[in-house]
């Protein structure tokens, strides 16, 4: 094919670096913004943080300065309508042969030298650290330590061993000489570790291990073991009449056995979850003034950035020899402007939310009105994507608690009167009805639907079931008391 030259004109939307930074700052949470600002300040000598701003020392009640939340604010807002590319990274937890070879490659070369006495670190231990610490105290051979360590690395975050031992043996390098019985022996040893239930391959085995770890003097321990080992499906279905027949026990004994089983931990490793605690810094505070709820900025959460006067004076005196500083000065000014714009946009959106949800602050979730992103966007002349960024990971401090701004949005359900009821309000009503029900005659989804219909709220039984499950409330037959 003969090569040719072609001239083609296209139109393409490109974002300036300043606008890209504005969008990025807008979608960050307050803590993420704090980290980003600290990074930029270290790179740009023209910027400095005021000494009186320290996010980590904030009081539990935020400092606020009342600001206007009117939708007619003249502040500029970030406006981008094109779709954004989201890059996600996924971790592969499969124990393939290469991974295993890499992690136990030191097995053959491990020397039996004197090891230091194990030390308990000051920070909370992860599950693997906790188990490896117990292994270091065990009177076993180095080969057994390595095999147990291999099993520990194969556990999931809940403490379960989901990898089949036979498959694990096939993945191991042949030169290690590890056979199935070696893994089975190591697993039996691991299952004696703390927390009880660790190393289980399924829920039944996990519960059995925990019951076996109890003292033999615990009342009804043997009966609970029999239920878990033989009748767990019947017990889970709440067929207590059948369970009583199988065990030959009365109601009082069954209640004690049930209490013993339901207090077991189905996820023994979850307490060692290494995820850091999530600290929330509210961006908005809500106060009542002259009978009206008003949104204010939490000023203590906004970084106080200044231009470094020392370097600014250098620019004035040596303009030609400080070209690098000139570029950094421009970036510093844009950053300060973008932070101010971010705060202004958050306040405007929060102001309209509070204006629309006045009844929520007075009466709670049952008074939540339907609200969608489009309604806020049209009111403030913003794009829905901008409102979505503003309401993600931004929090509001209210007398009723701290809520993410997205909490105040929800779909609507039509009522007989032609109005609309928020899905959040319906969930609150369902929760209230269930809390007030007779535990011996719990309300079915169909009954709840009929009760709401009598109040003028038409909700299908399927929708009731969906809302109930979202509240993590079990079905009526599982809520029935013995």
Automatic annotation (TrEMBL):
Region span, Disordered: 60-87
Compositional bias of kind Acidic residues: 73-82
GO biological process: DNA-templated transcription initiation
UniProt-recorded Gene Ontology molecular function terms: DNA binding; DNA-binding transcription activator activity; nucleotidyltransferase activity; sigma factor activity
Domain RNA polymerase sigma factor 54 core-binding: 122-311
Pfam families: Sigma54_AID, Sigma54_CBD, Sigma54_DBD
Ranges for domain RNA polymerase sigma factor 54 DNA-binding: 327-480
Keyword check for Iron: no
Described function: Sigma factors are initiation factors that promote the attachment of RNA polymerase to specific initiation sites and are then released.
Annotated family: Belongs to the sigma-54 factor family.
Protein name: RNA polymerase sigma-54 factor
């Amino acid at each position: 094919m003969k090569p040719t030259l072609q001239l083609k004109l296209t139109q393409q939307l490109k974002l300036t670096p300043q606008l890209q930074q504005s969008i990025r700052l807008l979608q960050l949470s307050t803590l993420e913004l704090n980290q980003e600002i600290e990074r930029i300040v270290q790179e740009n000598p023209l910027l400095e943080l005021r000494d009186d701003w320290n996010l980590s020392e904030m009081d539990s009640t935020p400092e606020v300065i009342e600001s206007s939340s009117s939708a007619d604010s003249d502040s500029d807002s970030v406006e981008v309508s094109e779709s954004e590319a989201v890059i996600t990274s996924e971790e592969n937890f499969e124990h393939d042969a290469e991974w295993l070879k890499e992690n136990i490659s030191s097995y053959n070369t491990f020397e039996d030298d004197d090891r230091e006495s194990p030390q308990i670190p000051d920070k909370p231990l992860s599950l693997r650290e906790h188990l490896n610490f117990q292994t270091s105290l065990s009177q076993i051979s180095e080969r057994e330590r390595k095999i147990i360590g291999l099993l520990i690395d194969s556990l999931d975050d809940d403490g379960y061993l989901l990898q089949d031992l036979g498959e694990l043996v096939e993945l191991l390098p042949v030169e290690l000489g590890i056979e199935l019985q070696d893994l089975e022996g190591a697993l039996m040893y691991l299952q004696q570790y703390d927390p009880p239930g660790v190393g289980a391959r399924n829920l039944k085995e996990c519960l059995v291990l925990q019951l076996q770890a109890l003292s033999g003097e615990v009342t009804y321990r043997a009966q609970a073991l029999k239920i878990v080992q033989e009748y767990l499906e019947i017990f889970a279905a709440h067929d207590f009449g059948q369970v009583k027949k199988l065990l030959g026990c009365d109601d009082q004994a069954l209640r004690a056995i049930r209490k013993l089983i339901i207090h077991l931990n189905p996820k023994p490793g979850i307490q060692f979850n290494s995820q850091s605690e999530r600290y929330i810094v509210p961006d908005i505070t809500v106060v009542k003034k002259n009978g009206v709820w008003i949104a204010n900025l939490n000023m203590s959460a906004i970084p106080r950035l200044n231009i470094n006067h020392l370097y600014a004076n250098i620019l004035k005196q040596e303009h030609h020899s400080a070209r690098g500083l000139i570029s950094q000065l421009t970036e510093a000014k844009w950053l300060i402007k973008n932070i101010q714009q971010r705060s202004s946009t958050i306040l405007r959106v929060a102001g309209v939310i509070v204006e629309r949800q006045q009844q929520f602050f007075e009466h709670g979730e049952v008074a939540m009105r339907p609200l969608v992103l489009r309604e806020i966007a049209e009111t403030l002349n913003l794009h829905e994507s901008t409102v979505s960024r503003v309401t993600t990971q931004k929090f509001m401090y209210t007398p009723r608690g701290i809520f993410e701004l997205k909490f105040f949005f929800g779909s609507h359900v039509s009522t007989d009167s032609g109005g609309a009821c928020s899905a959040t309000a319906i969930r609150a009503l369902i929760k209230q009805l269930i809390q007030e029900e007779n535990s011996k005659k719990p309300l079915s989804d169909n009954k709840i639907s009929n009760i709401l219909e009598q109040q003028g709220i038409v909700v299908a039984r399927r929708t009731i079931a969906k809302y109930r499950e979202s509240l993590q409330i079990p079905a009526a037959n599982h809520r029935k008391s013995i």
